[in-house]
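User: I'm new to structure prediction. If I give you an amino acid sequence, what do you actually give back? Let's try with this one:
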Amino acid sequence: MVRKQKPKLAVWKFASCDGCQLSLLDCEDELLAVIGEVEIANFPEASRAVVKGPYDLSLVEGSITTPHDAERMHQVRRASKFLVTIGACATAGGIQALRNFKDVKEFISIVYATPRYIETLNKSTPIADHVYVDFELRGCPINKRQLVEVISAYLHGRKPNTPAHSVCVECKRRGTVCVMVAQGTPCLGPVTHAGCGAICPAYSRGCYGCFGPKETPNTIALSTRWSQLGAKEQEIMRTFRSFNAYSEAFRKESEFHEN
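Assistant: Good question. You get back a string of structure tokens that encode the predicted 3D arrangement of the chain. For your 259 residues, that looks like this:
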């Protein structure tokens, strides 16, 4: 009897904090089920074992910030049948994309004693700016259950079933009173992808936009409401410039309010 070869799963890291890779390790029981279905071919966060490609599915964490990483990303793409980016860094450039709004050379001269040894790109960019991406899973960090769903979907040849609605729906599901309506607190919930379980509003804090812009976000209407609540232009700009600052919808809205 010929034993069927398991699909090869590879996990790759670029400029990031490793939080999304840790979300995979945090799956616990679900991870054991995943391991039973795939061969972990490359996952430095979990094992020193390395199996040569090609790979059936690659999960990529982190943004592209150096010329070396840009070239390495193309190598990963060529070795992968399907490529899924995980987390705010890989899908939107991450918190490090705040450098994109300034001159990175100025930062280098301030931080490093010998700037000439630093080789970096002018911007921190998402993986999709460099290679074709089959699916983007947002979050900072990602939702581990959504990650298992995405892995399962590609292993079984179907489209991932992840929510397209906003954090506001999650607030309603857990019975959380809207912080904007009740308290006048600026909140990114109406324009942010669901996935966190509406943690911040549950503690009377406005959503920080960790999961990036949802489909068709009306950022203009939200900013207008914030202005009515007394928010200043600088405050609105800074609110949109966090974990997903360089995602198109958030970037354009923040630039509109930049003085």
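You can read the tokens as a compact description of the fold. Here is one thing that stands out. Strands lie at 8-13, 39-42, 55-61, 80-86, 135-137.
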